[in-house]
């Protein structure tokens, strides 16, 4: 029996999606791609799930896309090369769009190598916790290609333009300590603590009512693209929606009851 390319677990309102092709450094093939997108869609529809942890088996988090898949057919084309490559890259970008569009916090628990498309998967998550064994590389320049899957969107926003230039055009690999220092990731932990650290963070972020979570994530990303006045208008709209939700109203009542008379 063939083992699934992903493993999906649920515990206390947190889903853990595990990439499971360790013999191929969790490179994304058609099967993993299809299973991944279905899992993200199912998680988005399940109101019992309030946060997602994305991690992997073996020595790699994800080494990008498997060269033997349809996503690279454009590189083997003799006609219409540009269109074939463009189509392949746009299709390959869908898992990253799915992660960023998921209206629930996503914690990437990076256990090992995160390269090219694998780096993009981590960057499309909302928070990144990494093992001391983790390594990060954009990598495309090494095989004479430009970045894809949102890398030129994510990296300048996280690192600033000069650092993004350096990281992309040198193609160098950095360890988890440097990744934390330059702001690529949130936290470095010992390998044996990676799972518990990711769970602790996911559970802490998912403690709020689900309706609130679905408002906050888009607001954070919109806030990075809008002017101050527009951001404030969006905040006011979101807070008015939140105030109308019974689950949020009940949580507010409990909070104010607890601290009544202490101010």
How is this structure best described in words?
It is a single chain. With 263 residues, this protein is α/β, with parallel strands linked by helices. It has two domains: 6-205, 2-enoyl-CoA Hydratase, Chain A, domain 1, CATH 3.90.226.10; 210-258. 48% of the residues lie in helices and 16% in strands. The chain is globular and about 70 Å long. The model has no long low-confidence stretch (mean pLDDT 91).
CATH class of the largest domain: Alpha Beta
Tell me the strand percentage band.
Answer: 15-25%
N-to-C span = 63 Å
Structural class call reads alpha/beta
Assign the CATH superfamily of the largest domain: 2-enoyl-CoA Hydratase, Chain A, domain 1
Average residue-wise pLDDT: 91
- CATH fold topology of the largest domain: 2-enoyl-CoA Hydratase, Chain A, domain 1
Offer a concise description of the structure.
This protein has 263 residues and is an alpha/beta fold. It is 48% helix and 16% strand. The protein has 11 helices and 10 strands.
Give me the secondary-structure topology.
Layout: E1 6-11, E2 14-19, H1 30-45, E3 51-56, E4 60-62, H2 81-92, H3 94-101, E5 106-110, E6 113-115, H4 117-124, E7 127-131, E8 135-137, H5 151-159, H6 161-170, E9 174-175, H7 176-181, E10 187-189, H8 194-205, H9 210-223, H10 228-244, H11 246-258
Helix pairs in contact: 1-3, 3-4, 5-6, 9-10
Key descriptive features of the protein:
2-enoyl-CoA Hydratase, Chain A, domain 1; globular; alpha/beta; 48% helix; 6-stranded mixed beta sheet; 4-stranded mixed beta sheet
């Amino acid at each position: 029996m063939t083992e699934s390319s992903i493993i999906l677990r649920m515990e206390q309102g947190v889903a853990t999606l595990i990439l499971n092709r360790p013999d191929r450094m969790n490179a994304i093939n058609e099967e993993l791609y299809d299973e991944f997108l279905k899992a993200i869609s199912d998680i988005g529809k399940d109101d019992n799930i309030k946060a997602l942890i994305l991690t992997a088996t073996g020595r790699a988090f994800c080494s990008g896309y498997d060269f033997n898949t349809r996503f690279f057919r454009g590189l083997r084309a003799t006609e219409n090369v540009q269109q074939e490559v463009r189509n392949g890259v746009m299709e390959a970008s869908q898992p990253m769009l799915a992660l960023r569009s998921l209206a629930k916090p996503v914690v990437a628990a990076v256990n090992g190598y995160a390269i090219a498309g694998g780096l993009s998967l981590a960057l499309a998550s909302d928070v990144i916790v990494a093992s001391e064994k983790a390594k990060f590389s954009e990598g495309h320049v090494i095989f004479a290609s430009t970045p894809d899957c949102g890398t030129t969107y994510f990296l300048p926003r996280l690192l600033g333009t000069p650092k993004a230039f350096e990281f992309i055009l040198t193609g160098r690999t950095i360890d988890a300590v440097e990744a934390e220092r330059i702001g690529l990731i949130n936290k470095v932990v010992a390998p044996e603590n990676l799972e518990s650290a990711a769970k602790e963070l996911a559970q802490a972020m998912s403690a709020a009512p689900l309706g609130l979570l679905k408002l906050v994530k888009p607001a954070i990303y919109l806030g990075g693209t809008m002017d101050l006045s527009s951001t404030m208008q969006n905040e006011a709209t979101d807070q008015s929606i939140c105030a109308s939700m019974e689950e949020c109203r009940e949580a507010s009542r409990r909070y104010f009851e607890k601290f009544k008379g202490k101010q």
